[in-house]
Target: glutathione transferase
Amino acid sequence: MIRLNRQCQLLSAPELKIMPTYKLTYFPTKGVAEPIRFILSYGGVDFVDDRFNREDWPKLKPSMLFGQVPILEVDGKKINQSTAISRYLAKQFGIAGRNEWEALEIDAIVATIDDFRSKIAAWHYETDEATKKRKEGPLFKETIPFYLENLDAQVKKNGGYFVGGALSWADLLFVAMLDYINFMAKTDVIGKYENLKQLKTKVLDLPKIKAWVEKRPHSDS
Amino acid sequence: MIRLNRQCQLLSAPELKIMPTYKLTYFPTKGVAEPIRFILSYGGVDFVDDRFNREDWPKLKPSMLFGQVPILEVDGKKINQSTAISRYLAKQFGIAGRNEWEALEIDAIVATIDDFRSKIAAWHYETDEATKKRKEGPLFKETIPFYLENLDAQVKKNGGYFVGGALSWADLLFVAMLDYINFMAKTDVIGKYENLKQLKTKVLDLPKIKAWVEKRPHSDS
Model:
């Protein structure tokens, strides 16, 4: 059933779309900032890619929100937390789900990818050699294969993307993070996972992502 | 400038709001599921609070998405990842920010609270006694005070809430998680932080949260 509204509607003037200015501050690496750089590039917006020298970090750290980077400045307003920033930008560029359930599915898989990265990072950054050695077996024989099998199966089930058969920021985030994950794990983790490999190719073939990857400064991690 | 729309608008019939059915599956504890229970309670919706016995976990784990709980079922559709679930519900109950920037600020502080919890959990669940001992000093003397001072300052700066001078799911999540954090840390972590203490009181005084806390099953963690 449909009702007719008899009152005439007031519409605001066509909004003048003024593009915000973006500045992203991080180490001179991909790390956890690369998903943000991928999403900004996908969105086709210019951003200041502010990379500081590692030796300046102790001096800079106290001035950062919660002592952390990446920090994104949007028209001068600062915010921390890489995944939160990625989600915010993804919503603006229309890659955060076509409905609330898809937005949830994307958030869930992103959180899972974050868990996966964190488990590898916990091993990689462990400073005690005996502890590191002890963690190595379970990580490489159980944890990493478990996550990759499940991630690969999810991409297969969803038509070549993590959610809903369409590109979302979960796909960009995963592919953007791969170099850092591989650097920490010292191996190409997706080597034998066909669906994840195809996803990687598909994302890196997006013209705006391709252009970003070609022009970004070199870094190992 | 304002334009007048000359076409009359079609409005859909008042939507018949059919409340979805919710079922939350988790250990018989607060843990990382309690924020979801708080948010569902705040939203005033009924949910099945499905708690399994600890000894059944090995049997149940393989059937869970990514081997994890909590799992929320919404009209039978299952999803994992506690923070993603909390955000999804919070949006429906109008406590996920009044604009996109606030949504981002809420996401950022939630991610920070998650980091804080994870750092305490990494120590609490460490099985190697020597490693645990080594981590204890830095955790309790540096990490915990650093986070709490910054969290307290943020609540002070934002009129008694984490974001925008108004209740959001970040506030519910923090207070819901406190019992679990205190259980792991073996101390009342917010003891000397006045703004966080006031926030806790304020949240626990919300009638629907009060009712939930009174009726929930007892658990230590």
Observations:
- The longest helix of chain A spans residues 129-157.
- The longest strand of chain A covers residues 2-12.
- Chain A touches chain B through 45 residues (CB under 8 Å).
- The beta strands of chain A are 2-12, 22-26, 47-51, 71-74, 77-80.
